[in-house]
Amino acid sequence: MMNAFDYICQNQGITSEESYPYQQMQETCDTQINKVATISGYQMVPKNGEEALLKAVKNQPVSIALEGHGQDFQFYNGGVFKGDLEILSPMQSPLLDMGQVKKV
Which residues does the UniProt record annotate as the domain Peptidase C1A papain C-terminal (predicted)? Predict the structure, then answer.
C-alpha cells in the first residue's frame, strides 16, 4: 500500500481506467495523462493507536490493510463485522494524508 502511495506522490497523481484503459504491450506508460486523483503524502498511525486513528479519520480519508486469514473474516458475508480482526502491518498502518507530505 505504501508503494502505491509513493507512486501516486512521485507521479503527481493517477488516472482512471476509463481515461487510460489497460493495453497489453511492452512499452513505457504515458505519464502525461489526465490525473483524476492526487495525494501530497501520507502518514502512519501506530498499531492499536485508537486516539491517533480517530484524529486521522476526522481530518482526511483513511486507508487500512486487514489480515483476512481467520475463519471469521473468510466467511463474513455482510453487516457489521464482529469477529476477530487484526490490522495487517508489522509496525504501523498507513493512512492517507491529504495535507503536506509526512513520513514517520
Answer: 1-84
